[in-house]
Fold this protein.
Amino acid sequence: MENLSSFEKILIAVDDSEPSYKAAAYGFALAKKLHAEVALIHISEMPVVMNVTGDPILGNPAVIMPNVMDVQQDAAAKLLENMVLKFGEGLIVKEFILMGNITHEIIDIAKKYEASLIILGTHGRTGFDHFLSGSVAENVTRHAKCPVLIVPNK
């Protein structure tokens, strides 16, 4: 079992959900007690966008959709900024905002950052919902090279 003082770099994976806020609060509090570095990571999956255009015959102008990826990046930046303001007082926090497969990106950044602990929340889905969406927490736990702390939703 790891000595608690060996947790020098804590990676906290977040999205904009209540379980993530609970995980972030727990992760930042633990980092302060252990005098550990903190990195926040948010991953957006690649957006699926339909091409929406107007009908020039009917006189309907084309609808210009904002760049969905830019909107996601801006929302992620605001999310991390809010979490640092809310929980990270007195800490220097590294931030990663990525796009891709959530599990893969968490595992990859954990290796590159040399994280000694990964913290994430769980939505607690079971049954058919779990079958459809899978569990990021479960997949990260299976593939991570460092300990993973899952903060429950309850």
Notes: The chain has one domain: 4-151. Residues 128-133 have pLDDT under 50 and may be disordered.
